[in-house]
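Archive entry: two folds, one per protein. Generate the first.
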Amino acid sequence: MEKIPILRRLPRRMILCLHFTFLILGACALFTLYLEGGNAVTSTSSNDLTTDDSTYKTPNKLLQPAKIKIVPPDWSWISKGISLTSNDTRKLNSYEFIKNTSSHHVPTLHNTKYIYISTSTTSTNRPKRFTYGVVTKRPTPTPVPDTCQTYSMKDFKLILLWTSFFGYWEYLPKENFKYCSRCRNCRVTTDRSRLKESDAIVFHARDMSLSDLPPVRYPHQRWVFYCLESPPYSDFPGLQHMKNMFNWTMTYRTDSDILAQYGSITRNYPSRKLDMQSLYSSFTNKSKSVVWMSSHCPTDGGRDSYVAELRKYIDVDVYGTCGTSICPEGATEKCLQEFAQKYKFFLAFENTICKDYITEKFFRTLKYDIIPVVFGGAVYDRFAPPISYIDALSFRSPKHLAFFLSGVGKDFKMYSNYFRWRKDYSVKLANQKECDLCALLHRTDLKPSSYYDVRKWWISESHCRTWKPKR
């Protein structure tokens, strides 16, 4: 031992190795228990989970689509109240409905009334949402499969407009169908006596009333919720009672069944040449900085408060009922042309800060030599050409925005960057909602479904909020 000292230290090293081995095994065991505990948490029933609406404040987080509830194909919603008999008050589970065509007993499920009509042979369901991707990749919605005869009116589908659009009845003009690239064999009527033969019934949200609804929905029909106004200005008490009433939605929301935006962006092929000399001449001739034109104040989104704060740091001329200057009624385009000659920035502020809500004031401004400053709840990169606007809500405060606008207004190189998108993109103040609705009505590969609570989808899931200055 004395001649070989390493043998004397061997037992001690063996003990240390054993200790180290036991520590590793213990750590592995603890890690295994941790993984099992994690799996137990993730397997929790979905009924026990809640969603925090505040997550929408991060633009990159996507919202889950509205939940749907399947409606049996041989049942239809009825708007008139019918008293239930004692035999009809039994508990309804798993769609256990009463089918009695002679007496028309009407069972109730979650305040929804159904009536048996006949067995449906052509049933459809809510189609996949039309979604706009980033405009640099795909500026148009996913096309609907061509399932109809493009140039013929044979086997046409009839669309009944049950309500007006603020008193106007030509909001789905029949002439528009001849410009559809795929589906043209649809007709539009306002004659309510043709309810039974109609394939789609369109309701404009702002003109709807519980006291004025079709007496019955036939199995082959699709009822369409149509709205272009933001939720704070289109909600009404009766909407919460319309359970399982609407099959499709036609709004500006990108998760609508039919997308009906105020404008769209298309790609230029080939690219156009940008006249930088004319743009520079326009820039040097502008004598003022910021202009805002509005006829609605105060608003739910708080844009008037934002502008009031902004005016402390930069000059803002206000036109319309919210200011002292006036743009004559019906002369909006003429006023915008004059603004583009004098001002460098136009406040294209929306009256609400809601999901996907962008009106024509933004798309229209892009056509002029003036930079739009936006204020809204949409992720504008999904709808607008790259570097075509300035987002007010991306700045810490109106003061920071004012300093940025002052800098851009003095530097033509920075200013001109907001117009270079015109080489590759163009703006249209139109959409193809009529064509998409017509194409969907001709599809026979879809199953019946409806929105159980369209008010929840339209109001709660729009995540509207109000801007307030920090104190």
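Generate the second and append.
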Amino acid sequence: MAITREAPSIYQHVVARGPPYERGVAHGQQAATKVRANVEYYKTPGKLASLETMQRIIKNIYIPNIKAHYPSGLEEMQGIADGAGVSLEDIVLLNARYDLARLNEPDETDQPVTNGTNGHHQDDYANECTSAFFLEQATKSGDVYNLQNWDMSARLWRDDCIIYLEIHPDPSEAKPSLFLVTEAGQLGRSGMNSLGVGVTANSLMSTEDYTPRVGDTSKPVLPISLLRRMVLEAAHFAEVCTTIYNFPRHVSNNLTIATSEGFGVCFEITPSREYKVYSNIDDQYLIHSNHFTDTAFLARSDVSDRYPGGSSWFRRQRLEQGIRPYRHGLITPELLRRCLSDHLGFPEALCCHPDPSPDTIIGGLPGYPFRSASATVASVMYNLSQRKITVCKGPPCKGVFQTFALEGPQSLAGLGPGGKILTDKQRPETP
């Protein structure tokens, strides 16, 4: 009789140390089965762009540009590939799946690159998230938090294909240690570093998003998920901002960034601009979902938000309803966990669950890509002040929470070759 093994209630914790290639190998070896499962999934027809289109963009655009602008990232990806027994192109595909799911123009052969129901990719075209930061004046403990309900294809949760990735770079690199919540094989989706900086992110879609063309050297482009990792490798908050400004991309995204020093901001970015969304100075918190909110963006007539309507229009307000009465120094992790478990609009709620019987009327509306088996695949609270991470597998209403402590340099003084911090010109990963 075959024995059916129940999936574990917690995600795998992967710890990788050393220079880029070596830590990549450690990642790939420890999570090899999950990495290969993710590669196989995203190569399935209809999940992203066509395999031919993806291979052309990966080989001719992404890899050369990553090599030029983020060489340590490419080394780490090669290590993951070798450790997991897949190709470098496969690992680049995993790190670019956000971008490759948003190709909305014909390729060089004038063939459409979108696939799936209603012309959209079935599961990964535009999944949703809710992120927030809370500064010390808002919390009962006086700690700074950056948190997120990460909503994606429920496959990641059910098939156990997410990992908690802890990275400790070699001291010669002059980089902080990192804790990341990510799909196996990726350099990171959200995370925090030992300097007390946290980043969570939200999908955004604008009419500026475009498909990069092979042979177009006018502007380099990188997969935008690499920006989140590069933000966490920055030496200080000013370098974070400079990295975002200079990062070359072809799709939109929101980054919710906070620091233990007591500051936070959302960067709503398109391929050409960076919009800064600040909290009310008296509130000391900010919440973001999946549509543009900056008035400068909304006032433009030459570009528009492609968000087609859905839970993003109420998730942000719903979380705010839960926490606002407690915003003056009364917010606790228990309150946040309870608010992140809200089910208004179930199953497409703040705490998202797979829809067992999708509404065929809404599911057939033009431009509505969300009627699929989506779920909150992880709920995470980064305590930036204490360098602690509290995270659960799956929806927070029923997930098993774990707390991790991130050890590592809280200053980069004394690191780098010769015991000196690398200058901007010596830091090859600075775009």
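Annotation attached to the second fold: The radius of gyration is 20 Å. The first helix runs from residue 20 to 30.
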